[in-house]
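for the recovery benchmark. tokens below, seq after
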């Protein structure tokens, strides 16, 4: 780490042979929530000592909330996390009370209903101040006139935990109590803090069908010899929670793909209320060598609110690089009634890449299969398919308004390096710029990436309060920055401004 009052870096800076040890989905917004958090807190998801927390939210505190069933709860990230966190035995309990405070530092509220628990829970990567959702396995009957007690605890996590946004209330009432672990029956302390929190709420009554549509959130490149590659998602929306409906079949198609020869298997997965793809709960049977229209039959009970199904392909080693993979959904059978999605053919596709090897260009006005129009597109390809030899990206003259993260690159080594090169003496005309909006963020992050070189580029972090030029985290090793210019706002006194930082994503 370098001095905080240095604002311009003009040197051949080499960061090599050093291991940096650190401690460290589509955005969703809850239907009803409270915010105001300006600081982050490690309890209970980023600690090994205080792994159980209860929070007291007052009756009437969630504007517009009505008597109904809570189906999903949300918390806000206190920092930016470029990789997912996997928790063991994450558990959520809810309860209600007329009390506006916990009675003492040692008394947990005990009239609690377990609404979620899982041996393994993955919370996806995300930026600071974004929400993450936990879809409840048991909806909770909520009375908005009563206070809501929220309990969350965990046994362990890997590779790192996440912090939560917190606000301290002006009232003298205790709003938070924490203890050592999930089994703790007494708390170790309490205070007036309240986490940013929200939930989705549905009206009570029998479940009814509302709508369905098809989405395609993932259009990043994929590679040959891979399995369970997300293609499209199917969203089914219901209201009410009693007498739940079921989906019995989906009519799908490989339309839009260059050739069905690039697809060895098609599968459908169900993720409940989560709009993040996961190949864990398969619906129906695998369809071998699909071509054109095909039907996947199964049986899936729907939850209240949003439900997500996903079409995924296995891609053989013989698939042709440069071809695209796509899909459509033309019908979903809900409660024995065929429903036509509002959108059957969403925009987008996924291009099949081989591992990168050789010389490429980054040029916003360029074309061809060896040109990327942005750093983000090039980085997405590296993150998706890796390298099979040395790779150089020759960067064209332009200003690139981007922020990107390089993860561990498959195939990268001391021989198979990855170089971003603006050309000797060209740093002033090859500019990467971004207004970093929150603490501990950078314009360029190397999250476990090794053997990467940046040459003859300018990196501008323009926010007046926050922002690093480069962040090395999660043991990013053997990386080089040479003949680059790193600009930070002049005359700042903020210790959140650092040219090159080796740290976690939630501290420095």
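predicted aa per position
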């Amino acid at each position: 780490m370098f001095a905080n009052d240095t604002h311009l870096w003009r040197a051949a800076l080499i960061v090599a042979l050093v291991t940096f040890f650190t401690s460290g989905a589509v955005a969703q917004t809850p239907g009803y929530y409270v915010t105001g958090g300006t600081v982050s807190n490690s309890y209970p998801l980023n600690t090994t000592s205080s792994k159980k927390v209860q929070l007291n939210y007052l009756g009437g505190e969630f504007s517009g909330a009505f008597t109904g069933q809570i189906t999903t709860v949300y918390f806000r990230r206190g920092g930016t996390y470029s990789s997912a966190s996997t928790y063991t035995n994450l558990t959520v309990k809810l309860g209600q009370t007329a009390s506006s405070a916990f009675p003492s530092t040692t008394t947990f509220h005990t009239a609690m209903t377990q609404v979620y628990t899982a041996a393994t829970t993955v919370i996806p990567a995300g930026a600071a101040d974004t929400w993450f959702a936990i879809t409840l396995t048991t909806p909770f009957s909520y009375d908005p006139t009563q206070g809501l007690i929220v309990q969350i605890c965990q046994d362990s996590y890997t590779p790192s935990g996440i912090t939560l946004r917190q606000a301290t209330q002006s009232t003298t009432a205790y709003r938070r109590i924490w203890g050592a672990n999930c089994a703790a029956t007494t708390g170790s302390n309490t205070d007036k803090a309240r986490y940013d929190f929200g939930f989705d709420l549905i009206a009570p009554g029998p479940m009814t069908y509302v709508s369905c549509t098809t989405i395609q959130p993932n259009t990043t490149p994929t590679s040959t010899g891979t399995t369970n590659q997300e293609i499209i998602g199917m969203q089914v929306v219901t209201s009410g929670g009693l007498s739940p409906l079921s989906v019995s079949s989906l009519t799908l198609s490989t339309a839009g793909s260059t050739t069905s020869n690039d697809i060895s298997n098609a599968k459908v997965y169900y993720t409940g209320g989560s709009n993040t793809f996961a190949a864990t709960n398969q619906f129906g049977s695998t369809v071998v060598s699909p071509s054109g229209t095909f039907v996947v039959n199964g049986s899936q009970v729907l939850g209240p609110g949003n439900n997500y199904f996903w079409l995924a392909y296995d891609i053989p080693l013989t698939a042709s690089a440069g071809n695209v993979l796509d899909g459509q959904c033309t019908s979903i059978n809900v409660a024995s009634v065929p429903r036509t999605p509002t959108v059957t053919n969403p925009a987008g596709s996924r291009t099949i890449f081989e591992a990168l090897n050789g010389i490429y260009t980054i040029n916003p006005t360029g074309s061809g299969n060896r040109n990327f129009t942005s750093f983000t597109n090039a980085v997405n390809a590296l993150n998706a398919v890796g390298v099979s030899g040395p790779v150089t990206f020759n960067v064209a003259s332009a200003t690139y308004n981007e922020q990107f993260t390089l993860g561990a690159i498959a195939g990268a080594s001391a021989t198979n390096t990855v170089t971003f090169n603006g050309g000797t003496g060209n740093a002033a005309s090859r500019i990467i710029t971004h207004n970093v909006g929150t603490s501990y963020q950078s314009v360029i992050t190397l999250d476990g990436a090794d053997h990467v070189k940046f040459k003859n580029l300018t990196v501008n972090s323009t926010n007046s309060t926050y922002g690093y030029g480069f962040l090395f985290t999660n043991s990013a090793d053997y990386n080089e920055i040479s003949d680059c210019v790193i600009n930070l706002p002049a005359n700042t006194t903020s210790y959140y401004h650092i040219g090159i930082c080796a740290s976690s994503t939630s501290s420095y």
